Amino acid sequence: MRKEFRALLVAVLMSAQLAVLPNGQASPLARSENQNEPKPQQALMKEVRHVLVMLPYYSVFDNLAYRVDGDRVILEGQVVRPSIKSDAEAAVKSVSGVSSVVNNIEVLPPSPMDDQLRRALYRAIYGEPALSRYGFSAVASIHIIVKNGNVTLEGVVDSDADKNLANLRANGVPNVFSVKNNLQVEGGGK
User: Fold this and answer.
1) 4 within domain boundaries
2) CATH no. for residue 180?
3) Are residues 102 and 62 in the same domain?
4) CA-CA-CA-CA torsion for 123, 125, 129, 134, nearest 10 degrees?
5) Are residue 103 and residue 124 in the same domain, yes or no?
6) Domains: count for the chain
7) Which long-range contacts (CB under 8 A, 24 or more apart) does 33-37 make?
8) Are 114 and 144 in contact (CB under 8 A)?
9) 77 in the same domain as 136
10) What is d(CA 57, CA 152) in angstroms, rounded to the nearest whole number?
C-alpha cells in the first residue's frame, strides 16, 4: 500500500512539474541565439571554473588554472593525461560568451618514477589526519604536481599551519628532489 502511494505521489509531482514548464525556452540547456555575446566577467569566470572542475579525469595530480581577458580565456597549468588538455580546451570553448581559448596547459612527461612519487606523496599528505579533510571534496584542495622528481603543491588550505604541514610531509617522501609550496591560505594569509 505504501509503495503504491509513493509511486502515485511521484507520478503526480512529476506531471505537475511538466505542466509548469514553458515551451522549452526557460530550460537550463537552452542557449541564446548569439553564443558569443558579452557576459559579465565574474559570471564568465565562474562558469569557466565550473566546466574545468567537472572534467571527468581531472584529479589531484593535475593543476588547471585560467585567466579571462574580455571574452578570451587563457588556460595554464599541468596535467598528467594529454586528453585532459584537449578536454579542457573543448569544455571552455563551449562556454557561452567565450570567443577564443589559448591553451598553454603543459602535459607532464610520462615517467614510472614520477607515478611512484605521486602515489607516495598522496599517501604522505592525505594520510596525515590533520590534512585528510582536504581530500574529502569532489576535487581535492591540495594538488600534487610531479615533474622529473620535482614537486609543486598547488591549491588552497585553511591555515599557515596546514600549508607548512603539507610542505613537511612532501619533503619527507624519499626520492623527491625539491618541493615548491604554492599553497594559498584561504582568506589571503601567507
Assistant:
1) no
2) 3.30.1340.30
3) yes
4) -110
5) no
6) 2
7) 35/96, 35/97, 36/71, 36/96, 36/97, 36/98, 36/99, 37/96, 37/97
8) no
9) no
10) 20
CB 49 within 8 A of CB 41: no
SS3 85: helix
Query: What is the 8-class DSSP label of residue 98?
Result: -
pLDDT, one tens digit for every residue, the chain (190 residues) = 555 655 554 454 444 443 333 333 322 333 333 444 455 788 889 999 999 999 999 999 999 999 998 889 999 999 999 999 999 999 999 998 899 999 999 999 999 999 999 999 999 999 999 999 998 888 889 999 999 999 999 999 999 999 999 999 999 999 999 999 999 998 765 5
What are the grid coordinates assigned to 68, written together? 579571462
Rounded to whole angstroms, the Cα distance separating 114 from 118 reads 6
